[in-house]
Every structure is written in structure tokens, then in C-alpha cells.
Write a structure and sequence with these properties.
CATH architecture of the largest domain: 3-Layer(aba) Sandwich
Strand order of the largest sheet: 3-2-9-8-7
Structural class: alpha+beta
Bound molecules: 6-diazenyl-5-OXO-L-norleucine
Number of helices: 13
Strand content: 5-15%
CATH superfamily of the largest domain: DD-peptidase/beta-lactamase superfamily
Helix content: 40-55%
Distance between the termini: 9 Å
Number of strands: 10
CATH topology of the largest domain: Beta-lactamase
């Protein structure tokens, strides 16, 4: 029987609002440390065109690393498979901001979702232009995916990370030494930090993810990416989207997902749903604690999993 999604979304939001252990809000970006942890939002865009939302689904948050999915989509559109000469496709087994593998692996990051990989993707997307051009392109792309021109960048968050992003500066400089960052580091990071500072609410984010549940199609018509590319992006989300907790996320939730330190997660059920959850408190791996729990509950109750036969979901 098809799940009663509105009832289930309400139930998940009620359960999550009552949770006491909400994790810890990210503090290494000072602006993010100001966010109230007592919030939880969820929105599900379904393949048959519904949008079901609950909790704080209308409150905007910093999408942070979730932007890496959209940036990867743009970069693949620009350079295609050549991207894989500069970025790997393997889980790193390390934290999102780790530098340890870069020396042994000659400045080639393991995947496009760890910070090092996303910085190379930003370098590709910069393509010889000024950061404002690349940032404008990214913003237009996300607005087009969500069908919402109100989506904007939170400049305070971008400035906050620019002032404190020492690890990212180290990563970018290190890769520049290997020739895998080709533009000046401050331009690449200017673009990367602004992309991470895009603010969206759960409704907007679930809508923006629809092309990944629809085999690359935009629901309003036309194609965002080919079916093969949509499947590969989903594969990377499943294997690398939660950093060194990607295996645990696949085990517990069983669908592709990409997290951000703002507390959001975009999760995709191919052919069925694009789901956004948000709660600012993070677990020890830097992924939303309640967001992960909510997706686990939702997947269990709906039967949604990329590991079960389609007729079982
Ligand atoms: O570069 C950073 O550290 C942040 N702008 C993004 C990191 C992030 O979202 C990690 N995800 N959970």
C-alpha cells in the first residue's frame, strides 16, 4: 500500500521536535554557530508532482556542502568525463576537510564531495572568469532547478567562512602546488565559499533535487543531465555524500544523500522522491543528527531503498 506521506511527514516532524539529543551546531564557521538547534524541517517532492512539507520547512538555512551536488552537475556539463582526471570517485574514509591523502595521491582528491574535491570542482567552474560570474551561474542554476528566483546567497555566512576558512585555504594552496588548482586560490575559494553560503529552505531544496529522482529530467520539461549522469551523481551521493559516515548512512537509510554542515540533507529515491531534511545539530561526522534519524525512520516506514526491488517500494 502506498504510504500516507502527509501523515508520515507530520509524525516524523513531531517525533524530531521532541528529541532531546540534537547534536552540536557547527561552530568553525562563526555565523553558523548562531543558529538555534531547536529546529527541524522536512519536505518531500514526489515524482507524481506533490510537495509535502512539515516542521520548519519554510525556514532558510545554509546549504553548505549540499551545494557540491549542484556544482558537480555544472562542472560535468562543462568538461564531461575529463573531470575524473582531476578528481577521484572513491570514498575517502576521512573527514570532509581532511588533507592527509592529498600528499600521497599527488593533489588528486578522492571524490568531488570532500572539501578538496569540491575546491577542484570550483576551479573547473571558474573557467577563467571572475568569481562573480561563476557565483551568478551557480545561483541561476539552483533557481532553475527549484523553479524559485527568491533563492539567494547569505553574504554574512560567506564572509564568515572567508575570514576563518584556514583549512580550505591550506587544501587549495596544496593542490595548487600540484597544479590541480589552476586559478588564484583566493578566486577559487571566493567562488566556493559563496556557493556553500546559498540559503534555501526544505521546500526549495527538495524541489531543486527533482532532476536526480527523474533520471536527469527537469519536471517542467527538458533535460538537466542525461540519465546516465543522473545515476552516476546519485551513486556518488550514496558512496561519498556523508564522508566517513557514508557506509553507515547507506546501511541505515539506503538511499543516496548529501549532507551539509548547516544541518541539511538532500536525499534521493530514484523514480519516487526528492527529500530535504534540516536540523542544525550535527553528529560527530559533521552530518545532521536528527536529519539522519528522520531519513532512517522515513525509509523504514515507506520501504524506500535503492537496495530493494522497485515493487517493494
Ligand atoms: O568548506 C566547508 O568546510 C564548508 N563550507 C562546507 C562543509 C560541509 O558542509 C561539510 N558537510 N557536512
Amino acid at each position: 500500500m502506498a504510504p500516507d506521506l502527509p501523515a508520515l511527514v507530520d509524525e516524523v516532524a513531531t517525533i524530531m521536535h521532541a528529541m532531546e539529543d540534537r547534536g552540536r551546531v557547527a561552530s568553525y564557521i562563526p555565523e553558523l554557530a548562531k543558529v538555534d538547534p531547536a529546529q527541524f524541517g522536512i519536505a518531500i517532492a514526489t515524482a507524481d508532482g506533490r510537495l509535502i512539507a512539515g516542521g520548519d520547512a519554510d525556514t532558510g538555512f545554509s546549504i553548505q556542502s549540499i551545494s557540491k551536488v549542484f556544482a558537480l552537475t555544472l562542472a560535468l556539463g562543462k568538461v564531461g568525463d575529463q573531470l575524473w582526471e582531476r578528481v577521484g570517485r572513491e570514498p575517502s574514509g576521512n573527514a570532509f576537510n581532511s588533507i592527509v591523502q592529498l600528499e600521497q595521491e599527488q593533489g588528486i582528491p578522492r571524490n568531488p564531495f570532500i572539501n578538496a574535491g569540491a575546491i577542484v570542482v570550483s576551479d573547473v567552474n571558474l573557467g577563467g572568469h571572475q568569481p562573480r560570474v561563476a557565483i551568478g551561474e551557480m545561483l541561476r542554476f539552483v533557481r532553475y532547478l527549484a523553479g524559485d528566483d527568491a533563492i539567494a546567497i547569505n553574504e554574512e555566512v560567506a564572509a564568515s567562512e572567508t575570514a576563518t576558512g584556514f583549512r580550505n585555504m591550506a587544501l587549495a594552496n596544496y593542490m595548487r602546488a600540484f597544479g590541480n588548482v589552476r586559478h588564484p586560490v583566493d578566486l577559487v575559494l571566493g567562488s566556493y565559499f559563496h556557493q556553500c553560503a546559498i540559503e534555501m529552505n526544505c521546500r526549495q531544496l527538495a524541489l531543486a533535487g527533482r532532476y536526480l529522482m527523474l533520471d536527469g529530467r527537469h519536471p517542467e520539461g527538458g533535460r538537466v543531465v542525461s540519465p546516465g549522469r543522473a545515476r552516476r551523481i546519485n551513486a556518488l551521493m550514496l558512496t561519498c555524500g556523508h564522508y566517513d559516515a557514508s557506509g553507515d548512512f547507506a546501511f541505515r537509510v539506503g538511499i543516496p544523500g548529501k549532507s551539509g554542515v548547516g544541518g541539511g540533507i538532500l536525499a534521493i529515491v530514484p523514480g519516487r522522491a526528492s527529500i530535504a531534511v534540516w536540523s542544525p545539530g550535527l553528529n560527530e561526522n559533521g552530518n545532521s543528527q536528527l536529519g539522519t534519524q528522520a531519513l532512517e525512520l522515513l525509509a523504514r516506514r515507506t520501504g524506500w531503498s535503492v537496495f530493494s526491488p522497485p515493487d517493494a517500494r
